[in-house]
Design a protein that fits this description.
The complex is a heterotrimer of chains A (305), B (340) and C (375). Chain A is mainly alpha-helical. The N terminus of chain A is likely disordered. Chain B is of the alpha/beta class and 340 residues long. Helix content of chain B is 33%, strand content 21%. Chain B is built from twelve helices and twelve strands. The relative contact order of chain B is 0.13. The N terminus of chain B is likely disordered. Classes of the chains: A mainly alpha (305), B alpha/beta (340), C alpha/beta (375). The interface between A and B is medium-sized, with 24 and 31 residues.
């Protein structure tokens, strides 16, 4: 069209590769993701860890027998990563310990994203009093120190459920995403297709969640993954510092356990420390590679079309 | 026409509407005291430069903005004091087609989904088969045939002209009585624009749809609104309004004449006859924030007299013509001699 | 072109001699070497690793000094690609794959544009051949003043060093000739100017080095009708004053009627008709040109029916065999669908104004507007 100033040929003149038409967007995303090296590595890492943590416990069972006499035994052909302080198999603990980490990460991220998108989109769309009140609320929530609150909650109530932990982390970390969603809605709602939907009287819920929000789908997806990594860091940090109750088995508790039992100074205990740390690092690395690649694929400013 | 029994009020009537915007502490009177009306099956063209208020006027008629003065009436009822049911009826009857086919379609929606949402929402089609049938009918109406090759396309897979047609089809989903089409800065190919206008004319004649068409090109106004009226706007006011053939063949206001002179003629012989400059003293339109005194057109007007700088003209019937003109020099030539 | 010569009357536009006054008389001066001679130009765009589409196919034309040529066609016909190729400004994916572009400067020396090195191109562009891009809104850098951008152009392209005072003088001079007030415009940022002023400032920038050739891509498309009129009139005057040869690209045939001596109609990357403006408008011989003309609404005279061209331009990747326009043409026969017709010369005219059309049914093209209502 003549409206563009860039010296490129007209749209009809240069056909886009035939592949891109007709294929579902999700399939296309997947194929683009696997074509990029970093995206492929990220996807593999995340899928491998999720598979290990979800399917693994079903195979090896969730109860780990321990023989205190064999504490801190070095790796052997029977126990690839050796035994921990209570004589339990480190690899077995590692397989079981991922479930909670992933559950807290994804649940907290889901809560954060849902709250942020709902409030951000509505505040941006309606503006006025509602918007002002919601912005005040974000200011208040942002000033609440998460770690301190969790410590206090943990002290007064029995914070023995990882679900509750996820809810608290999720309920406290939405303001930043909410603000950027709100800002995007402010610009998207000025687009003509939104006005066209208003003219057709399709109702505000449909306009906000059917017309505007889907246009931010890629942004929301990327921020969801970032929220997962943040929630995992927060959670592991809490366990490491001993601020969350040490019940059950997860990677955070394993690190804390190693710390409190003085495994740091026992060369034989090294696998017990390194294993959960490695898992967390690999998971986070996978997630970060994934977001970076998704950003490259989905962000129109980075995408070369 | 149908449905309205006993009501003689026009479909849409703008009664001395004004719209003042506020920006950077300044008042910008985008529209001041404009009165117009359109009925079913009628056509009205709003013509003017950008900044003339034609788009704002159209948006007021479409209920996209509330006027700061005057009233917009739908079948005699003020939009501001409508009941829910009346508002609902108005919303279905009057639709607005945006000028930019690239911004007016949601990029994530297929053609089918764009058209089916309003159909379902307003209960115009219930079963999936009914929706599909209606979508196909709409696509056929806007000449996107065969319909099945367009139903599942996304906006980025369509050309500008095809998008514009989908946009029109969406405007037609609720069987409107009036379409307001804004083509004021359309950059579509001439051929595409003409095919849209021919389609609009067909809708008007066959289905009785009324039109308000916004353009800066009097040649398009002439073609589309020959059987209707044309209103020429300048800095928020109507300066000339009347039957289109009269406006084109016998323009009264110096601004209308300048607009007519400015249209490039697809005929080298006629083009050669034209005098340069369009007869205007300045090519730049003054800012709404600093409107000239008296007649806002006087700084650019080749006919301006002293009185034009002090008093502003009213829209009056022009002597010896069928249209109304807001120009003292034209409507009141006697006192011009007195003052001169 | 008639706009440039106030003396021309409609009569001499339609006479046996389709060319007229100003340009014709200059030809007699002896400068008959074309400024630009394009022969069988081919351009392709890469669309994948091994796939290409031919965006221009065998385009040839000559442009004589002081003359004005309009490239017309729908979006996607290749007219913008041709404009960019002439100045070797094609985007990275585009490439000239054949043919020649010969430029003859004031010194009478012919140079092959397709063979120029990067540094030769740099010296040649703007000083001898300039381009005014479409979309005046975006062509200027928003964070620099118009004066600074004009100075940059001068410093980059003028031979040798150029003093500040001279830069100012030359900028002011061209701005004055596009009817802008230099003192106001030079210190302004692009957003402080209206669309029409920006477009004129852009034209002024193109004229800074007094080029022999000016290529304008849709010079008036985004402008209001009155501003468009001032730009049209201005271009006609500037051509007299600066004496450049002009190629302008437009989808609006009315503009060609106002400004051009000669019209080249393009379709699917190739020239389908060429001739003097008078010949093209009075008796187009290619059905596509005829339809393009009939899609433009005239504002004067009776109300004529306007017909859009059915269908859409073909994708360049999947061109039909034979004449590319055949699928949209009611005159098309089996013969049209088998072999692509060459440009057939129809009426001989001096100075490359020969009317030619790439249509084997050119004698069946009856061009008339159907009158619906009398004025």
């Amino acid at each position: 069209m003549t409206a563009t100033s860039s010296p490129v040929p007209d749209q009809q003149a240069v056909p886009t590769p035939a592949k891109s038409a007709g294929v579902s967007p999700l399939r296309r995303l997947f194929s683009e993701l696997t074509r990029s090296t970093s995206g492929f590595i990220g996807l593999c890492l995340v899928l491998a860890i999720v598979l290990l943590s979800v399917v693994g416990p079903m195979i090896v069972g969730t109860s780990v027998p321990g023989d205190p006499m064999r504490a801190w035994e070095a790796p052997s052909s029977d126990h690839w990563l050796g035994l921990e302080g209570a004589g339990k198999d480190t690899l077995h603990l590692l397989i079981i310990g991922g479930r909670t980490v992933l559950m807290v990460g994804f649940l907290a991220a889901t809560i954060t994203t849902v709250i942020a998108v709902a409030i951000g989109a509505l505040a941006g769309y309606f503006g006025g009093r509602f918007d002002a009140i919601m912005l005040q609320l974000t200011d208040i929530v942002m000033t609440v120190p998460q770690i301190v609150l969790l410590a206090v909650v943990g002290a007064f109530y029995k914070l023995d459920s990882p679900t509750l932990l996820a809810v608290i982390v999720g309920a406290l970390s939405w303001p930043v995403l909410m603000r950027s969603i709100r800002a995007q809605v402010l610009s998207l709602k000025e687009r003509e297709f939104v006005e066209a939907a208003q003219l057709l009287d399709v109702g505000w819920a449909r306009i906000v969640f059917g017309e505007i929000v889907p246009n931010m789908a890629s942004y929301i997806l990327i921020n969801f993954i970032i929220a997962v990594t943040n929630a995992i860091y927060a959670m592991v940090g809490l366990y490491l510092l001993g601020l969350a109750p040490q019940r059950g088995i997860n990677w955070g508790i394993m690190i804390n356990d190693a710390w409190t039992k003085g495994a740091m100074f026992n060369p034989d205990a090294m696998p017990y420390i390194i294993a959960p740390v490695t898992m967390i690092v690999l998971l986070q690395l996978g997630l970060i590679l994934l977001t970076r690649t998704l950003d490259e694929i989905l962000n129109p400013r980075l995408r070369d079309r | 026409m149908p449905e309205t029994t006993g009501s003689t009020a026009p479909l849409i009537e703008l009664d001395t509407v004004s719209q003042v915007f506020h920006a950077k502490g300044q008042d910008l009177p985008a529209v001041s005291g404009v009165s117009l009306s359109v009925d079913e099956g009628e056509v009205l063209c709003l013509v003017g430069e950008s900044g003339s208020g034609k788009t704002t006027t159209a948006r007021l008629a479409a209920g996209l903005a509330a006027p700061t003065g005057g009233a917009v009436r739908f079948r005699g009822k003020d939009l501001q004091s409508m009941t829910r049911a009346e508002r609902h009826e108005y919303r279905r009857a009057v639709q607005y087609i945006h000028q930019d086919p690239y911004a007016s379609l949601n990029p994530i929606r297929s053609v089918r989904s764009t058209l089916s949402i309003p159909l379902r929402k307003h209960g115009l089609a219930h079963s999936a088969a009914e929706v599909e049938q209606r979508v196909d009918e709409l696509l056929t109406t806007v000449d996107l045939t065969p319909a099945e090759s367009y139903r599942s396309k996304f906006p980025h897979q369509l050309s500008g002209g095809q998008r514009q047609r989908v946009s029109v089809a969406r405007g037609l989903t609720l069987n409107p009585k009036l379409l307001i089409a804004d083509e004021s800065t359309s950059m579509l190919d001439v051929s595409i624009r003409v095919s849209l206008l021919n389609m609009f004319t067909r809708l008007r004649k066959e289905e009785g749809v009324g039109f308000i068409y916004i353009t800066h090109d009097l040649a398009l106004a002439k073609y589309f609104a020959w059987e209707g009226r044309t209103a020429v706007m300048y800095l928020g006011k109507i300066v000339e309004v009347g039957p289109t053939p009269q406006i084109i063949a016998n323009p009264q206001h110096p601004y209308t004449r300048a607009l007519l002179d400015a249209v490039p003629e697809p005929d080298p012989e006629l083009a050669a006859l034209k005098k340069p400059g369009g007869g205007l003293l300045s090519a730049e339109i003054p800012s709404l924030a600093a409107l000239p005194s008296g007649c806002a057109f006087h700084p650019r007007c080749p006919l301006a007299q002293d009185r034009c700088r002090t008093s502003s003209p009213q829209l009056k019937p022009a002597p010896g013509a069928e249209q109304d003109v807001a120009c003292m020099v034209v409507t009141d030539p006697a006192s011009s001699e007195a003052s001169a | 072109m008639p706009t440039t010569s106030p003396s021309s009357t409609p009569a001499d536009g339609t006479g046996a001699d389709g060319t007229s006054s100003a340009a014709g008389s200059r030809a007699a001066d002896g400068t008959s070497t074309p400024v630009l001679s394009v022969k069988d130009l081919e351009v392709a765009y890469r669309t994948g690793k091994d796939s290409r589409v031919r965006a221009l196919r065998g385009v040839s034309f000559d442009l004589h000094p002081h003359s004005s040529l309009a490239l017309v066609g729908e979006s996607g016909c290749g007219k913008t690609t041709l404009g960019l190729a002439l100045l070797r400004l094609l985007p990275a994916l585009g490439e000239i794959t054949g043919g020649s572009i010969t430029f003859t400067g004031d010194d009478g020396r012919a140079r092959e544009v397709t063979d120029m090195t990067a540094s030769q191109l740099r010296r040649w562009r703007w000083s001898e051949a300039a381009m005014v891009f479409q979309g005046a809104q975006n062509a200027f850098n928003p964070v620099l003043t118009v004066g600074a951008q004009m100075a940059d152009t001068l410093r980059d392209h003028a031979p040798g060093r150029i003093r500040r005072k001279e830069i100012l003088e030359r900028s002011a001079e061209v701005l004055r000739s596009v009817r802008l007030e230099p003192r106001r415009v030079l210190g302004s940022y692009p957003h402080e100017l209206s669309g029409g002023m920006k477009q004129r400032a852009l034209i002024a920038t193109g004229l800074l080095m007094r080029p022999r050739l000016l290529v304008l891509d849709e010079p008036t498309t985004a402008l209001d009708i009155l501003t468009q009129r001032t730009v049209i009139d201005l271009l006609a005057e500037l051509r007299e004053e600066f004496g450049f040869a002009m190629i302008f690209i437009s989808h609006d045939l009315a503009l060609a009627a106002e400004l051009a001596d000669r019209v080249v109609t393009m379709y699917a990357g190739t020239v389908v008709e060429t001739g003097s403006t008078a010949d093209i408008f009075s008796s187009p011989r290619h059905p596509y040109t005829s339809k393009l003309i009939n899609a433009v609404p005239p504002v004067r005279g009776d109300l004529a029916e306007l017909a859009s061209i059915p269908g859409a331009p073909p994708s360049l990747a999947t061109l039909p065999p034979g004449c590319a326009f055949a699928p949209r043409c009611e005159l098309a026969t089996d013969e049209c669908r088998t072999a692509e017709p060459p440009l057939i010369p129809l009426t001989e005219r001096p100075r490359d104004m020969t009317h030619a059309a790439a249509c084997i049914h050119h004698d069946q093209v009856h061009h008339e507007r159907k009158v619906i209502a009398r004025a």
